[in-house]
Amino acid sequence: MILVFGGNGQLGQELTRLAAARAIPMHALSRGEADIADGGAVAAALARWKPELLVNAAAYTKVDLAETNAEEARKGNEIGPAVLADACAAAGVPMVHVSTDYVFDGSKPDPYRETDPVRPISVYGRSKAAGEDAVRGKLKHHVILRTAWVYSEFGNNFLKTVLRLAETRDELRIVADQHGSPTSAREIAEAILYIAPALLREQKLSGTYHFTADGFTTWHGFASRVVEIAAPMTGRKPRVTPITTVDYPTAAKRPANSRLDCRLFVEKFGFSPRHWTEGVDATTRTLVAAAKRMPSHVA
Ligand SMILES: NC(=O)c1ccc[n+]([C@@H]2O[C@H](COP(=O)([O-])OP(=O)(O)OC[C@H]3O[C@@H](n4cnc5c(N)ncnc54)[C@H](OP(=O)(O)O)[C@@H]3O)[C@@H](O)[C@H]2O)c1
């Protein structure tokens, strides 16, 4: 069976849903059930569930708050993964650990490869890079999946924010000089479940891989697509105005180039991600339809 930490997050919930749909044995633990930075709780969970594979979907993901909450970020993104890696090494269990494009500074003109040196420019990015190092250093049998711009039907994310703002505003001003691939948590869950059997069989597949949806856009392109797909269903089509990063100051710096080259993952595992518009279109339609069924509930 597969044991998931961070079960209440976007990825955790998609993993749970997909595993149930495919009758894949899985148990997901929320933060309340097991804090990944708590060695006793993690050891007890492994002893109880005896997993064949552990997936770490837990993380401190509040990128701007991390700037003033470095200890919390370190706990979720560095200490937690280190505790999980230690526990996995002791139990002989491989782990899939999820990381981020924010380990890079974004100055490379091309998509990032796995071999490019990391140079995070935020507290969040530094904590995630330290978490990767901890996993690599403590556990041989692991896959680190770096992904980007994650959205889903669950939790808070950019796609849901755009839908909410589009209900009341006539103009959305969205950053158009940061580039990346909007990636659905469902797609990441599919990739993880797809690679799990191969990873269990072949320790030599261990390593760091980039995995996002196919194709690239900007936050402005992402928002425009959401508005375009939602409009026929909502009757709302606000203008989406491109702005620059300088026009939209945030506590944490973000890389201008978040594009990840995912060829290695496709070559090694034979799983090709769908184009980013497919997931964005499907999630937008699902959320708008759900909001229409419950008019008092905003996407
Ligand atoms: N979201 C993105 O845009 C994005 C982009 C690139 C990479 N990633 C990576 O993708 C992975 C999944 O992200 P996501 O979007 O699914 O995140 P998410 O929705 O924020 O979920 C993270 C979950 O981890 C839990 N958590 C935090 N600290 C924990 C701890 N110490 N022990 C146990 N659980 C803890 C959170 O619980 P609480 O809610 O109770 O805090 C939350 O349920 C993460 O590794 C993230 O860094 C995300």
Would you spell out the secondary-structure blueprint of this structure?
Blueprint: E1 2-5, H1 10-21, E2 26-29, H2 39-49, E3 53-56, H3 70-91, E4 95-100, H4 123-138, E5 142-147, E6 150-151, H5 158-168, E7 171-175, E8 179-180, E9 183-184, H6 185-201, E10 207-210, E11 217-218, H7 219-234, E12 239-243, H8 263-269, H9 276-293
Parallel strand pairs: 1-2, 1-3, 3-4, 4-5, 5-10, 6-9, 7-12
Antiparallel strand pairs: 8-11
The structure holds NADP nicotinamide-adenine-dinucleotide phosphate.
Descriptive notes:
With 299 residues, this protein is α/β, with parallel strands linked by helices. The protein has helices spanning 10-21, 39-49, 70-91, 123-138, 158-168, 185-201, 219-234, 263-269, 276-293, and strands spanning 2-5, 26-29, 53-56, 95-100, 142-147, 150-151, 171-175, 179-180, 183-184, 207-210, 217-218, 239-243. It has a 6-stranded parallel β-sheet, sandwiched between helices. Helix 1 links the parallel strand 1 and strand 2 (26-29). The longest helix has 22 residues, at 70-91. It starts with a strand and ends in a 6-residue tail after the last helix. The protein binds NADP nicotinamide-adenine-dinucleotide phosphate (NAP). Residues 5-6, 8-11, 31, 35-37, 57-61, 75-76, 80, 98, 100, 128, 147-150, 155, 185 line the site of NADP nicotinamide-adenine-dinucleotide phosphate. NADP nicotinamide-adenine-dinucleotide phosphate binds at residues 5-6, 8-11, 31, 35-37, 57-61, 75-76, 80, 98, 100, 128, 147-150, 155, 185.
